[in-house]
# Entry
Amino acid sequence: MIDEETQEIFRQETEALIESLQECLLQLNSTPDDMELVTQVFRDLHTLKGTGAMFGFARLAEFIHDFEAAFEQVRSGNAVVTPDLIAVSLKAYDLIVALLEGEEPPTEQDAELKAALGAVTSGGAAPAAAAAAGDAAEEAPAAEGELEGWKLRFKLPPEFMEIGGNPVAILEELMEIGGPDTKVEALLDGLPALAELKPNELHTAWEMILPPSADEGDIRDVFMFHEDSMELELTAIRGAAPVVEAAPVEAEAVPVDAEAAPAEAVKTEAPKAEAKKSGGKKSGSANVQMRVSAERLDDIMDRVGELVIAEARLSDLAQKLNDPNLTEVVEDIQRLALGLRDTTMAIRLTPMSSITGRFQRLAHDLAGKTGKDFDFVIEGEETELDKTVIEKLSDPLVHILRNAVDHGLEDNDTRVAAGKPARGTVRLKASYSGADVLISVQDDGKGLDPEFIFNRAVDRGMISADANLSRNEIFHLLMAPGFSTAEQVTDLSGRGVGTDVVKSTVEALRGSVEIESELGQGSSFTLRLPLTLAIIDGLLLQVGEERYTVPLAAVEGIVEEPEEIRDGTESTTTVELREKLISIMRLREIFETGGTRADHPKVVLVRTGDQQIGLAVDRIIGSYQTVIKQLSPMHSRLNVFSGATILGDGDVALIVDVAQLVKAEGLDHDNKEQAA
# Structure
């Protein structure tokens, strides 16, 4: 049994390969003739097999050997990519993932999947052979004779010896595989002129003839760690085929899981990685990569946060002492701290593409389970979020995607009868919005019926029949624990726990969920999440005797507070600013702050979603790097504050969550409904 440390190292090494493998298999489902993808699958499997053997994962390496052989059949033209092959390959992928995670699935699965892979690849070329049989007089395929040996031609990379390689050891290993009947010939065509010869580079190629007893897999395994950077050609030598009378061939029926999606049931549209376009390995980046544990990154982030706080204290002290020499040093420290903060933040940020692969697989499986044809479109994969946020996004998005397909999309006949295209569309989109990131799941299905949701909530005793709820409030009933609109429970949905998980997870990340829907046109669930949970640029404001911070990315402008609203005492009001009606929230009244009113109060214009809101404050102090400190559990109910920060003088300033504040004051849906 492999120890946990070795298992974790191996898991990290194979993480990118696994993502690449699944992505290529899903893309092959839509584009089965793309040989670049076939080659990429073969490369990923070959590297996984070699890495697994190196780390002692014998069962994994043995299973992948047969998996790899199936795609070698496709790569060599002896088989074609079919929906059955993709379905079995995805099950084989699941077994690989289980083995990587240290699980011990029954060994019978290995044999069953190997047999299924062999069956679908042996029958994969049957359609082509059947078509060719119709024109046998003109294009009869040549039958293969008995294997008489292997012809191997290879040229190792020029820097092979510089990195510690030994060509003689390679030749000896091949001789051992082939035995005494192996023939070797050095090919010197690539030798440069003597004046240009570099003694530390390898220019010789070799050609070998191995007997038929040599195993193809064993030959290729000799070059396991070099195949991607060398020239390698291995061909079978076969004798003349015997002439036999043609007989009708019936391809063996291969059972495929009922959950497998048909070839065109779901199309995934997402930008291919550059590695796929070039046919190179996904992990073969020219930049040197280094894996660092998440705990160390968190520790660095904590220390950078403390450095930012210390820098703020030093800056405050320098202003009081008014020493030019000290001020110059403080400016240098501020510049260095800002650069260190940005670099550390960049390390923590992770693109959405790191988790979209699993959603493509989910869409593929949902198409098979529901029998609905739809296009799954991903936009904004390059959008980056804090790694802590990314790690917790998977479950909420899985629940929303399931509901979009199971509840949202109609079946093909219903869509056609309603005048819609037979194929539906589910869109996963990520984008930036001020200091937030918006991740939305949209479908063009039947939409949400507010009246039906309201009545279902009344039947379940969640609200009274005379409750006066806005459209937005009715939609948010979907996220109440135990609520479901499903008529019956399935293995996909209907138990009323999915949307509750979405709400609790997103709120724990200081985010919110927005629901929009038009009956008959579709629905959109949008997760609004903070870009980071660590350090932000903040605008420090003074309200009475207290100071507050607003994320600078959400600020769109600062204006003088209009004379006509300065003496008001209500918490919110509306005024015309810059030729637009703007809702103004008086933070003094909302937070019940004491102290003398300022002579020249200001209005800070902030953006939340598609709304512009004004915050009436007494004074603008300035912009500062803000280290977010979580509030204690006792203060967790104060959701209008996303945290707190320590100022240079040691005082604490609360960080205002503008989106939650707008929601608490009832300005989020009221304005939208009035505008409608």
Notes: The chain is about 40% helix and 20% strand. The chain has five domains: 4-126, 147-238, 294-350, 352-530, 535-675.
